[in-house]
Amino acid sequence: MVSTRAVPNLVFRRLRGRRSAGEFAAAVRRAAREIGEQVACDARYIGRVEAGEIRCPNYAYERVFLHMFPGATLVDLGFSARESVRGRGARTAARLVPYELSLSPTLDSDTDEECDVLRRVFMTSGTATVAAASLGLGGPSAAAGPLTVPVQRRVGEAEVGAVEKAVREIRLLDDRHGADGLYLKAVEPLRVAFALLDAGTTARRSTVDRLYSSAGELAISVGWLAHDSGHLDDARSHYAEALATARLAGDAALEAHAFCNTSFLARDMGRAREAVRAAEAGLRVARPLGSPRLLALLSLREAGGRAVLGDRSGCEQAIGRARTAFERGAAGTDLEWMSFFREAELEFLIAQCWSALGDWPKACWHARRAARLQDPHFTRNLALYQAQLAGDLTRAGTADEAADACHQVLDLLERVHSSRIRIMLADTVRALAPQGGPQVTALLDRYAAVPV
Questions:
Q1: Beta-bridge partners for 149
Q2: Fewest CB within 10 angstroms: 15, 151, 335, 417, which?
Q3: What is the pLDDT of residues 124-133, one digit of tens each?
Q4: Which of 293, 283, 213, 282 is nearest to 246 (CA)?
Q5: How many CB atoms lie within 10 A of CB 7?
Q6: What is the pLDDT of residue 418?
Q7: What is the maximal distance between C-alpha atoms in the chain?
Q8: Which of 387, 307, 293 is nearest to 343 (CA)?
Q9: Residue 64 forms part of a structural domain
Q10: Across-strand partners of 133?
Q11: Quick check: is 54 in a domain?
């Protein structure tokens, strides 16, 4: 009997060189755009290629790889020749996917909504084995024991429940401690969640729908951890994966969530027009869901993008729509993940808008309200709001109050681990230093002594 054990692709690994898997994946996506292809290449895909799990890439990837390495063949790149991997497995997969699945990009042309994600969600080889995986967050900060996704070929309630539990646990730990240290540990449960989709499902449609939705929500949660810990390209890939999954499943709530986070990320990456377009797409999807709070949040995402563009009028209009929707109150149709979106978050996002527009007095006013209104349970967000306030106060020339806000951020960073907040604080301290004064000097001394 021929062994089916994967043989590592050492040639492909050498071609990656000193670049990380995520950096190489980004290069693959750029090369794809150069020739008009769309591929969902991320660090996990590169890892699968290098591990030998992908003996021969699909045709889209083949075209991209041959574009990246002119004159090479698939065999030269360490893959098996295509004719050697055709056979029963390929025919089985073809029967499972009777038509091509594709999405026309809703955002800018380089948005990663690629067909390979769809294939990986739908296709099974009949030989997939789902390994047990633990969330493994552990340590004194963990709110619960390890989460295990059971080993089973056919997916049922236990497996779906485990994925849903992973989503809730990640959100809880992120609220309390920030993303640093959680992101890399959360990637493995995400891989297992999509392996569960590949491994086969029960006949019950409700269970299948829950699995797609929970896997998509997990992709968004892991994407947020990547975003907050500074792995922005990884976050973009995870959000694209969630968006593709939502569209496959016809899950409007998941799609709106994916667009919401995509807009937020695009703003942070300096893609302001994409941020606006993603928010607008999210609003179109969200309107039939009957959640005013969701419409409010998406309107604020739009406002944030317009602020970065310098569109003050458009920003103010979007803020006005957000306030009107928010004031309609909570509804039974509000989504579970929106528990963080309270008045404090509303004020914080408005503060960000005025900050981007350079209106420091208004930015300070809203940032103060955000910090004052925040529930202490959301420790990470409290640190974030204080960091926003410190930056706005610094740029408004209120040095002493800014220094006090920085001290409060430093106090919270003893429990919160977020690269995004640390970068905000570092930028503020650099801007504050020239303003001088005893309180600023004391802050600088403390900041220099604390590993941040």
A1: 133
A2: 151
A3: 222 223 323 3
A4: 213
A5: 12
A6: 82
A7: 78
A8: 293
A9: yes
A10: 149
A11: yes
437-441 long-range Cβ contacts below 8 angstroms, 24+ apart: 437/399, 437/400, 437/403, 439/399, 439/400, 439/403, 439/404, 440/399, 440/400, 440/403
Question: Residue 59's domain spans which residues?
Answer: 10-98
* pLDDT of the residue at 94: 30
Q: Report residue 148 as tokens.
A: 């295990």
> Has residue 33 been placed in a domain?
yes
Single out the residue of 428, 383, 389 nearest to residue 409, CA to CA.
383
Q: Which two tokens stand for residue 76?
A: 């030269």
What residues form DSSP beta bridges with 201?
A: 155
Q: How far apart are CA 4 and CA 12, in angstroms?
A: 20
CA–CA distance, 429 with 422 (Å, rounded to integer) = 10
pLDDT tens string 189-240 = 888 888 777 765 554 777 788 888 888 999 999 998 888 888 888 899 999 9
| Cα 101 to Cα 45: distance, rounded to the nearest angstrom | 19
How many structural domains are present in the chain?
Answer: 1
Q: Has residue 447 been placed in a domain?
A: no
Can you list the residues of the chain whose pLDDT is less than 70? 1-5, 38, 82-155, 174-180, 199-203, 451-452
